[in-house]
Write a structure and sequence with these properties.
Conserved hypothetical protein from pyrococcus furiosus pfu- 392566-001, domain 2; 2 domains; eight-stranded mixed beta sheet; six-stranded antiparallel beta sheet; 13 helices; 20 strands; globular
Length: 411
Amino acid sequence: MIVRPFMALRPKKDFAQKVAVKPYDVISSQDAKRITQFNPYAFYRVTKPEVNFDEPIEPSSDQALEAAKKNLQWFIDSQIFFQDRESFYIYKQVAQDHTQIGLVATFSVDEYLSNQIKKHELTRKDKEEERAKHIYHLRAQTGPVFLMYRSCEQIDSYIESLAQGQAEYDFVDEDGVRQIVYVIQDKMVIHKIKELFERVQSFYIADGHHRAASAVRVAQMLRQENKSHTEDEEYNFFLAVLFPHKHLRIYDYNRVVKDLNGLSEEEFLSKLVKVFDVSESKEGMYKPKKKHEFGMYLNRKWYRLELKQGLVDESDPIKALDVSILQEHVLDGILSIKDPRTDKRIDFIGGVHGLQALQDYVDKKNWAVAFSLYPTSIEDLMKVSDSGRIMPPKSTWFEPKLKSGLFVHLI
C-alpha cells in the first residue's frame, strides 16, 4: 500500500490550538458560528463556510464557497498558515483513558477505486457532492479521512517510536483530548515508513467515507480536465490519518425513535417479546454488557433486551451485527422505519454522549423510545469490509475525532 509524504499547509505553532476544530459533519452550523464569533481563527470559517453569513445559506452555494476560499487565503496572507516542505506527521491523541497514534499522510485515489482502501458504509450522494464542490472550488482537502490497518507489531512500534522528542503541536482541546503532532522530515525515516507500509495488503476507512468519496470524485473530474495528466499530481492522493486497528475504540451508536408507529406501549412490548427476552432494568439506565443485548428506555423505564437464540445467522457478518438485528426486527419489523438514512422518525446519538442523552431526548423532546447498543467491534468492521459488503447506517462512532485545520492538502 502507498503512504505518501506531502507539503502540508498548516498553522504556525502558536496558532494551532485556535485554528483546530471538529470535523465539519459532527457540529451544527449554529454551534460552529457561535465559536467563530468568539474565535476568528477557528477553521470552521473554511470547513463550514455558511458560518460567514448572517442569513442562512447553502454551504455548497457559489457565494459560500467563495467565502471559504477567501478565508483560506486570509489564513495564508496573515501568515497564520505556511506551506511545509515534504513531510510525514505523527499524530497522537490522548483522551482520559485512551491513546491512539497515527500517521498523517496522503493516500492513493487508485487504491480507493480498486478497493484496496476498503469501505463499510454507503455515502449519500448529496453530502458527497456538497463536499466535492468544496474541495474542487478551494483546490484543497481541508479535513483528514480516518483510516486504519490491521495492527502489525513491527509497524506499530516503529510509528510509536517516532512520537517522542520535541512536539510541533501539543495542546488540550475543548473536549479534554490532548492533541500532539510530530514532524517527520528525515529522508531515511520517510523511506523506512514507506517501505514498511508497502507490505500491508489493505487499509480500511474507519470514519470519513464522505470525505474520501468526495476527494476521489474531484480527482476524477480533474483527471478529465487535465490534458497532460501524469498520475503524480496532488489530486491523485487524499489526506488521511492512518492508525493501527488495536489503537482504536468504537463507541456504541444509539437510536431514538419519535413514535411507536401507532402502537400502544403494551402492543409494542408484546411484539418485542417475540424477538427478545425483555426484563425491566433493576439498575436504572441500562448499558448492554455483551453482543446481542440492548437497553431500551420507554415511558420513563429502562429495560434489558436479550436476543432469543436461533433468530440470527451468526455466519453472516452483516446479519449478526447488533445494528442489523435492531433494524430488521424492531425499527423496520415493528416500527416501519425502512430507511434509517432518510426517515425523519429516527435519530442517532453517539455513545460518547452517555445514556443520559438518550433519556433526555425521550423525556425533554417527547420522543417515544430509545435504544442503547453494544458497540460494533473493530474485528466485525474489518470482516464486513473484507467481504465487500456494507454495514447499516450509523453502525460505528469513533472517538476521539480527528481535528480539521492542523493539515491542509493543496491539490
